[in-house]
Design goal:
With about 110 residues, the protein is of the alpha+beta class. Helix content is about 35%, strand content about 20%. The protein has three helices and four strands, in the order H-E-E-E-H-E-H. A four-stranded mixed sheet has the order 3-2-1-4. A hairpin with a 4-residue loop joins strand 1 and strand 2. The longest helix has 17 residues. The radius of gyration is 14 Å and the shape is globular. The relative contact order is 0.20.
């Protein structure tokens, strides 16, 4: 009998592989979240998401992901952070994750 692979378990495995080598991304069906983390200290420096107060639109589509990417770049630049490592959270670099990353790059973040 063939067993179907647990997609979330495989995603977590990819995520840990990337973390071992940080800009962290989590996406749900309706929202997208992103944090800039200082891994040495274990502290979140800044974060943005589609559930924040004042966010207009949906985080479940590419346009919403672009808005979140631009928001995290603006917050990071305000704090003097210009360069980060992009951790896609084990998700494929496609769709919303790609749109978020490209919007952050366009707004001035380097990774």
């Amino acid at each position: 009998m063939l067993l179907k692979a647990d997609k979330n378990k495989l995603r977590q495995k990819r995520h840990m592989r990337v973390r071992n080598h940080i800009h962290d991304v989590f996406r749900s069906l309706a929202h997208i979240y992103v944090q800039i983390i200082d891994d040495e200290k274990g502290v979140t420096l800044t974060a943005a998401s589609s559930v924040e107060k004042g966010f207009e639109g949906s985080g479940g589509n590419i346009e919403g992901a672009k808005k979140v990417g631009a928001a995290i770049a603006k917050k990071a630049l305000d704090k003097g952070i210009t360069e980060v490592v992009f951790d896609r959270g084990g998700y494929i670099y496609h769709g919303r994750v790609k749109a978020l990353a490209e919007a952050a790059r366009e707004a001035g973040l380097k990774f």
